[in-house]
C-alpha cells in the first residue's frame, strides 16, 4: 500500500482524493457490538481531547473475534484499517484487545503505527517493574485468550503476567459478553474492583494492573483507589500514541 501524501507546502494545503474529512489522528476498527459506550470507553468519541475516526468491521462479532479469532476475518479487518488510513488516520487501533490476533499482518500492510490490542503494553509495564514483580491483566474473556493472540503481540515470557478473565462476573458478562443492551455502571465497577482485589490478594507481588478490555477505562480510577497500584488502560495507550503522531510545540514561560 502506498504511503498517503500528507504534505503541506507553506500555507497551501493539498486535498487528498477520496477523503471526506480531515483532522483525525487515531482510527479505530470496531466490533459489531450491541453495548452502551459510556464516556471513558474507547467507543465513546467524547472520551478524547482530539478527534478519532471509527470504522465497523463487518462480521466482527463476539464469536468471530473474541471467541475464535477467526483467520478468515483478516482481510476484512485489513480493509477497514486501510480505509481509516485513506481517510487520514495517522495510527490505527481497535475497540477489542482480541483484534490483536491480526496485529502482525495489519501492521505489516499499513504505513502508519498499528496497535490493535491494549495488551501490547504488557512488556512495557513489566520493564518498569523490578524482576520479582508481576502485572495483572484483567481481560474480557480469559477462556478465549489464545496463544495466537499473545504470540502476535510479542508477549513471549508470560511468567510475570497474571491473566484474570471477567467472564465469571454476572453484570460484566451480561453487558459485555452477552450484549444485553444495558449497562449498570455501579454494578460493573464493583465487579471490576472485586476482580482486581482478588488478584491482588492471591498475588501480593503485583506491581501494576492492566485493564485489557476497551469497556474498562471508566473504572480505572476506582481500581487504582482500591488497590493502590498503577493502573494502565486502553485510553492511556491511545493518548500516548496520539502524542507520538501529532506532536505539538510546547509553550510557556522561560
What are its keywords?
254 residues, alpha/beta, Rossmann fold, 2 domains, 4-stranded parallel beta sheet, 9 helices, 10 strands, 33% helix
Overview in brief:
With 254 residues, this protein is α/β, with parallel strands linked by helices. The chain has helices spanning 62-67, 74-86, 103-109, 122-128, 147-152, 170-177, 185-202, 220-227, 234-245; strands spanning 8-9, 12-13, 26-30, 52-56, 91-94, 114-115, 134-139, 161-165, 206-211, 231-232.
What is the topological layout?
Elements: E1 8-9, E2 12-13, E3 26-30, E4 52-56, H1 62-67, H2 74-86, E5 91-94, H3 103-109, E6 114-115, H4 122-128, E7 134-139, H5 147-152, E8 161-165, H6 170-177, H7 185-202, E9 206-211, H8 220-227, E10 231-232, H9 234-245
Parallel strand pairs: 3-4, 3-5, 5-6, 7-8, 7-9, 9-10
Antiparallel strand pairs: 1-2
Helix pairs in contact: 7-8
Amino acid at each position: 500500500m502506498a504511503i498517503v501524501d500528507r504534505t503541506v507546502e507553506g500555507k497551501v494545503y493539498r486535498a487528498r482524493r477520496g477523503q471526506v474529512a480531515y483532522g483525525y489522528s487515531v482510527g479505530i476498527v470496531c466490533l459489531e457490538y450491541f453495548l452502551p459506550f459510556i464516556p471513558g470507553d474507547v467507543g465513546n468519541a467524547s472520551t478524547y481531547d482530539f478527534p478519532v475516526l471509527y470504522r465497523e468491521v463487518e462480521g466482527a462479532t463476539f464469536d468471530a473475534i473474541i471467541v475464535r479469532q477467526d483467520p478468515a476475518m483478516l482481510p476484512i479487518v485489513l480493509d477497514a484499517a486501510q480505509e481509516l488510513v485513506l481517510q487520514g488516520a495517522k495510527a490505527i487501533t481497535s475497540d477489542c484487545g482480541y483484534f490483536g490476533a491480526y496485529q502482525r499482518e495489519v501492521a505489516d500492510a499499513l504505513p502508519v503505527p498499528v496497535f490493535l490490542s491494549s495488551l501490547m503494553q504488557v512488556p512495557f509495564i513489566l520493564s518498569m517493574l523490578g524482576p520479582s514483580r508481576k502485572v495483572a491483566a484483567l481481560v474480557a474473556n480469559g477462556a478465549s485468550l489464545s496463544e495466537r493472540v499473545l504470540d502476535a503481540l510479542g508477549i513471549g515470557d508470560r511468567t510475570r503476567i497474571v491473566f484474570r478473565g471477567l467472564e465469571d462476573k454476572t453484570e460484566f458478562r451480561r453487558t459485555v459478553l452477552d450484549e444485553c443492551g444495558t449497562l449498570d455502571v455501579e454494578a460493573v465497577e464493583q465487579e471490576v474492583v472485586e476482580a482486581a482485589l482478588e488478584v491482588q490478594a492471591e498475588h501480593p507481588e503485583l506491581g501494576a494492573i492492566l485493564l485489557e478490555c476497551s469497556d474498562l477505562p471508566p473504572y480505572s480510577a476506582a481500581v487504582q483507589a482500591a488497590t493502590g497500584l498503577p493502573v494502565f488502560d486502553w485510553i492511556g495507550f491511545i493518548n500516548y500514541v496520539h502524542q507520538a503522531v501529532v506532536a505539538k510545540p510546547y509553550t510557556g514561560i522561560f
